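Supplementary notes for students who missed Thursday's class. We covered one full example, reproduced here. Read the sequence, then the structure, then the short commentary at the end.
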Amino acid sequence: MKRFEVIVMPNAQDDIRRAFAWLEEEDPVHAEKWIREIREGILGLETLPESHAIAPESDVFECDIRQLLVGRGTPWRVFFTVDGDRVQVLHVRHGRQDYWRP
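Structure (token representation):
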């Protein structure tokens, strides 16, 4: 099976740090579970990243933006692109937030 290199871009790293800090203040146990799920989901993009849906926001970008959904209920959305054998994680946001725009 083909493996993809996964690169988490600085904006996405910042998104994850901010979300984790907020969640940790609210519920440290949930925050730890959340960060594990986010990491596992992102690492899972090494295989079959194109099996994830194209995000609704993709139509305003010049390339296909895909989304990985993490969590139950209203999931977190991990936005990424696939370019050759590389996956670039661009942004992470909660599903209740407004659509992502450039």
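Commentary. The chain has a mean pLDDT of 92. DSSP finds two helices and four strands in the chain. If anything here is unclear, bring it to office hours.
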